[in-house]
Every structure is written in C-alpha cells, then in structure tokens.
Amino acid sequence: MIFIESITNSVPWVNSLALTLNSPLLATTNEAENAPIVLTGVLLTLVVIYLASKIGGELSRLVDLPPVLGELVAGVLVGASALHLVVFPESGAVAGDSVIMTILQFINNLTPDAVTAIFQSQSEAVSVLAELGVIILLFEIGLESDLKELQKVGYQATIVACVGVAVPFTAGTVGLISIFHAPVIPAIFAGAALTATSIGITSKVLSELGQLKSREGQIIVGAAVIDDILGIIVLAVVASLAKTGEVDVLNVIYLIVSATVFLIGSILLGKYFNQSFVAIANKLQTRGNLIIPAFIFAFFMAFLGNAIHLEAILGAFAAGLVLDETDKRKELDEQVKPIADILVPIFFVTVGAKVDLSVLNPVVPGNREGLIIATFLIVVAIIGKIVTGWAVFGQPGINRLAVGVGMIPRGEVGLVFAGIGSASGALDKPLQAAIIIMVILTTFLAPPLLRFAFKQSEEIKELEKADLLG
Amino acid sequence: MIFIESITNSVPWVNSLALTLNSPLLATTNEAENAPIVLTGVLLTLVVIYLASKIGGELSRLVDLPPVLGELVAGVLVGASALHLVVFPESGAVAGDSVIMTILQFINNLTPDAVTAIFQSQSEAVSVLAELGVIILLFEIGLESDLKELQKVGYQATIVACVGVAVPFTAGTVGLISIFHAPVIPAIFAGAALTATSIGITSKVLSELGQLKSREGQIIVGAAVIDDILGIIVLAVVASLAKTGEVDVLNVIYLIVSATVFLIGSILLGKYFNQSFVAIANKLQTRGNLIIPAFIFAFFMAFLGNAIHLEAILGAFAAGLVLDETDKRKELDEQVKPIADILVPIFFVTVGAKVDLSVLNPVVPGNREGLIIATFLIVVAIIGKIVTGWAVFGQPGINRLAVGVGMIPRGEVGLVFAGIGSASGALDKPLQAAIIIMVILTTFLAPPLLRFAFKQSEEIKELEKADLLG
C-alpha cells in the first residue's frame, strides 16, 4: 500500500486499480481477482479427470473390456458417489462438498462467498469443456461413419436398426408409464436412452472375433450406424420436448421432421459445400489451415442445431458426415484425434461423476423402487435388442442370436443420452443412475455374450460339417 | 403441462421435474435450463473467433507479416473496439453490448436477467478456454526450446538477453513513474511487457533471409529463448506483485528466488522424471496414451505454478522444457500441434478483443496522455532492444544492428503480458491499449527492419570484397 494514498491526481488508472488493491476482503470477491483461482480449480479438476480416465481406461483394457467403461466407472469413483473430487452444483453439491474447492480455499485463504462463486464458475467451465468433448465425439463418429459403405448393407441393416429403436423405446416408455407410473417426459427420455447402439464397442469385439466382414458383422455394424442416426434424431426430439415440458403431437411431428430435414438437408447440401471446403483448406497457408475451417463448420452446425432447438451434437454429427466425404478426410481424422483425446474423456468422466449411485444403494429401503426400475430398464435393453436378430429376412442360416446380441452395448452413445438428459433436467437422480447402470451392464455383457453367440454358431456349423462328412 | 397436475403420488422425480417444467419464467432463470444456451453462446463465439483468426492470419501472411499479428488485429476488430461480437464483462461490457447475446436473446426469447447470467457464464467459459490456450502455447514454446542447443550459443546470447531485459524494463518503469507519474505496480507491469522477445517471429524472418545459422542468427535465437525464460520469471514476479498490490523488497526477492527455483528445480528433477514418463507412455495402450500423461504433467505443473502464487504459464513452460528432453518429443510435438491450433487463437483473438482502442482515439482530447504514453513505450521498446547489439563482445565484424533489431518483435510473448496484466487487473484500459499498440508496432516493424539491417551488412561485405578484389 505504498502509493495508494499518495496519488490523488487524475491519472486514469488509479480508480480501477484502487478497487483491486485497497482491501484484501474486497479483492477476494472481485471477478478479476477470482479469475486465476477459477483457472487453478479448472486445472486441478482436469488433472483429476485425466488421471481417472487413464487409470480407468487402462484397467478396463487389462480385463478385456472397452476403455470407455473404465473411464465411466472412474468418473463415478471421483464424483458425487464416492471421492467428491469432481462434483457439480447442478447435482445439488455445494462448494463445501468439493475436495478441490477445499484445497483451493486452503491455498488461497478464501472467504465462503468467494469459494461459492469460484465453485460455480469452475463447474460451469468444466461443464462447457465436457460439452465441447461430446460435440467433438459426435463429430468424430460422423467422420468415421461411411455413408457409401452403408448403402451396400442396405435394407437388412435398416430393418434391424428400426426394430432395435422401436422395440426398446416402446417397451421402455410404455413400461415406465404403465407399471411405474412415471411422468411422460422422463419415461420418453429413458425409453430413448434404450435405443442407442455403440458402433465402437461392437465393431471392436467383432474385429477381435474375426467376424467384422461376416454377414452378421456387416449387418450389425450397418445397423449400428443407422441406429446412431436414428438415435440422434430421437435424442434431439426428446431433449426438445424436455425443454418445453409438453408432449404435443404436432410439436413431436414438427421436431421429427425438422431433425430429419436438418440431417438429410445438411448431407445433401454438404455435397456442394465439400468442394469449397477442400478448396479453402488448400488455399490457406497458416497453421491450422485444415482443422480451423473444419471446426468453424462443426461448431457452426452445432450452433445451428442448438439454435433451432434441437441438439448441438446433431449438428456436429452432420458436419462429420459431410466432411467424411472429402479428400481431406484422413488428414482431418488424424488432427481431430488428439483433440478428441483430451476433450472426450472430460465428457465421459463427468457423466460418471454427476451420477449419484448412492440413490440405488440397496440397503436403503427407499431406494427399492429405483432399483426395480433399473432392473426393468436392463431387461428391456437386452431383450429389446436381441429380438432384432429375428427381423433379418431372406438370409437363410444367419446367426440371428449374434446379430441381436451385437446390438446390445449402449456404450458412449447411451452415455450421451444420460449426459444430455441430466443437463436438460429431464431425468431425476434415480432414473439417471438407473440409465447409467443399464449402460454399464449392457456394455459389460456384450463382449462375452457376442463371443458365446458366435462360438455356438461355429459349433453348429462344425456339427453340420461332421454330419455331412459322416 | 399435460401431466403435472395429474401426478401427486410420491414418484421421486416429480418434484425436481416440476421445477423445470412448471413455469417458463422460472425455467429461464434456472441453471440447468440456461446451460444449453450458454453452450450456444460459446459455440457462436468460437465460430467468430476462429473466423477472425483465420481471416486475420491469412491476410497478414499475404502481406508478408506474421500471422499472429493478423489474429490480434482481427481480435481488435471483432472486440470491444469495433464490432462488439466478442466482449467481456471484465472490460466493463454488459450483456446488451454483446452482439452475440443479442442474437441469443432473439432466438430464445430470454429475460434480461437470464441474458445477464448467460453472458457472465459464457464469457467465463471463453476466458478459461483462452487461458488454456496460453498455457498450451507456453507448453509448446517450452517443447520447442532446446536447452542443449542453447548451451552452445553460451555467454553471448545470455548477455544480449540480460541487456534486452534490463534496459527496456528499467527505462520503461522509471520513465512511466518519473515522467508520467504512473503508480508503481502498473509501471512495473508495463516495463515488464517491454522485456519480451518473440522467438517465433524472429526465427521465421531469419530463416526467410537465410540467416538462421549465421553468427547473428544464432545469437538472436539463443537470446530470444533466454529472454523467454527471463521474461516468464519477470512476469510471474510482477503478476504476483499485482495480486498483493504491494512492492515489498523482501517479497520481490522471495518471488524472484521462488520463480527461479521452480523453473530450474523442475528442469533438474525433470531429468529423472523423463524416464518414468516415457516408460508410462510406452505401457499405456488406450487412446491418448502419450498426450494425456503429457497434459496431466503440464496441467499439474501449471496448477503448481498458480498454487504457489506465481503463474500457470510458468509451470506449463517448465513442463514443456522437461518433456522436450524425452524420446517422445517429436510424437508429442505432432499431437500438441492440432490442440494448440484450436486453443491458441482463442487467446490471441480475445487479447485483441478485450482491448478498447477507442481510449487512444486521437480526436478525443482526454486521450492525449494515453497516446503520449503509447509513443513513449514504443520508443523504449525499440531503442531498448537495439542497444543489445552493442552488448556483444569478442565478435569482430558482427552486424550489431541486426542483432539488436532481431530482438525487437514482442509478438505472442508480449501479448501474454498484456493478457495476464489485464486479467489480473493491474493494467487499466489506456495502458493496456498502449501495450497492445507497442506489441503490434514492434512486431510489424521487425521484419522490414531486419531485412534492411542484413542487406546493409551484405552491401558492406560486398563493398569490402570489391575493395579486396579491386
């Protein structure tokens, strides 16, 4: 405080400066003063999230499960259910619940008011990073979904996908309303979460089994891609319903039409845009000449998706599908990868962290209903996808069980539903926890079930062979 | 509102749901409801920032100037000085000043309260992204600074760097205090901003002139690297002074010692850590096996830097220096590049956007003092670096002017000072604008001046040759 009193002449910066320097109490509630502490909190949270994602992912891989499952479970561990390192005000946590905030308070000698403000800002920043993560995840999935390959698999995959969306959605929604007397919107949201199929997990297991190019494998992967497209349309419609809170038939029709038109329209218009995109990227000479135009397109489409009251991820997915058709695809894929590597785990871990699994603790009697609902969702999730195998027609001798089982894992797409459902406020804690448990179990069960289904068919084939030879 | 009234039995989700669905007015002030709109705002802001950075960068390149200059000027154009697309509450803007907020308000029919809350959250999220951008920028600069190469250039570079830090810092700070009666902390901050030298810009121009491996080029690049290290220490010390608001000699000594110990300590400890880092990265098998451990390290170091009341970027820079010494350096460089490509422009553009150049509008008489200060800073910035050429000793025939001129451009490092100065509240608007103008002009002048300086020396050499031959 050497100079504060001595300067009273009209040097323009004294006023604004005095505000920050005069009193330490004033300074801690000041926005500009808090900014570096918010950053400290974000950095520490990211370190925890990255550690959790890597440890969880690697352990998961060691026991031959998909890494995303480990990231999710690690998120549950560091989050509201256990360690309270990564917690969010939306799920009812206050600054005092957060271990990271306690550390910051200790380091910086903060007032309770300052801690609350910093906790709020830090949580919002991490949430935005997680949302950018899911946008980039869907952009990447779009980039990897080859529309031309899809046309070859044709009708079979489309029918399997449609059955795999219709059956679990109807059974889940109707069951929740009629058996459990759930309100319409949460029931529709939970039903929608049952429709997803994870391309990533299924295709990884199929390739391990050497079945990726088999008839069954082709149908499963094709159906999973179509399922993604249908699922994102369903999600956009359902999330929009949750925002208005009304289920109006006209509105539902409008939403389905607008989501479909948005997606198909951007793919069709994209064919023309493609050429200009490549031309622009080729002309640019400064750093980021490919990735920045791609992100401008992806973020603008995501903005449009949000602006027309659908979902940002729908736009990002459409942008991915469009740019997938360009010559720059491979180069773009490579550059998006590290960006996805650092942003996508933030999404998976925070989805896990936001879930409070204690609401499903079976020891507490009040949780019984939530547990029953979780069990119901899991049963519908499995049966609703297994039946899709019997929707295949004109393919004698196909392994119907393998096709159905291949559609079971919800994986990252199911998590997108859970994440957006909780962000939009449509899902309460028990239902959100039930969906997460459903995603974990279906993803967990799919690899062994798929191995079993294909093994059985091989044994049958071998028996048939033996019969023929004998 | 079909079902709200009809359900009164104790289904657990009804209460929380009613909150979001009951009243549209309540819904717009609700955090969970605002979240997608905050995201919409962030996405639109990022689209504007990326467009500005690419257009500015490319135009700059077309007229043979460093792209970072174009990004900065584009930031000024989209920011508080002109278009009001990207504005921030810290610089005194309210939601109504932001064109993006006006668009969001139009799309979503928001109440004034909701707009204010969304503006606040959106600006904080973009600021955190910009801060992550500068952290990654310094991490990348650290990765590119080869400590072994540096040892070869040795004493010459060190002396040039020290003179290039001491002269502008002393002349700037003392001048601001004695001539302009500026308070001590802002004067020190502005003096510190004069010390930076941009490695990137200088080495690019040198390589274009074919002088990167010349004696002059080696000294300039070496001095620029050391200058970075000194500059970051100075910045950490000055920013910490700005936080407490007191200039206490003991505290200054403590800060200089702790910043130096932190940097040198982490480099020394890093030699042991290096091996473990490579071993860990080699063992990991899931996606992001290299980049996630690197980011855990960089963000943890940045957190430490902040936690010990220095700067996050000091930690990130140290992390980059450490990981630069590993075998993974090249692979890591490649993966960090696209991440830097999408995050660093957010920093440069927002630094420009936060500046209000109207405070230096020469038509307004009240701005005269600010303009005089800006002119003073520019003169000190240029002369203070040119004199460094005459600090070179034992190198007969060296082009002293070229060495001095090579140290002039402040570039990205000067912007880091301006950005952190404005975030910490140490710089008021006129001083911040004056620093930005100084950075722009020095960066703008360096390439032509450097060409001139080398051309002159070649002409002299040729004359000498002609004399010898003749």
From TrEMBL, chains A, B:
It holds the Pfam family Na_H_Exchanger. InterPro entries: Cation/H_exchanger_TM, Na+/solute_symporter_sf. GO terms for biological process: proton transmembrane transport; sodium ion transport. It is a multi-pass membrane protein. GO terms for molecular function: antiporter activity. One of its GO terms (cellular component) is membrane. The keyword Transmembrane applies. Keywords: Antiport, Ion transport, Membrane, Sodium, Sodium transport, Transmembrane, Transmembrane helix, Transport. Gene3D superfamilies: 1.20.1530.20. The chain crosses the membrane at residues 35-53, 65-88, 155-179, 185-207, 219-241, 253-273, 294-322, 342-364, 371-393, 431-454. The keyword Ion transport applies. It is found in: Membrane. Residues 51-452 form the Cation/H+ exchanger transmembrane domain. Coiled coil: none annotated. Belongs to the monovalent cation:proton antiporter 2 (CPA2) transporter (TC 2.A.37) family. This is Na+/H+ antiporter.
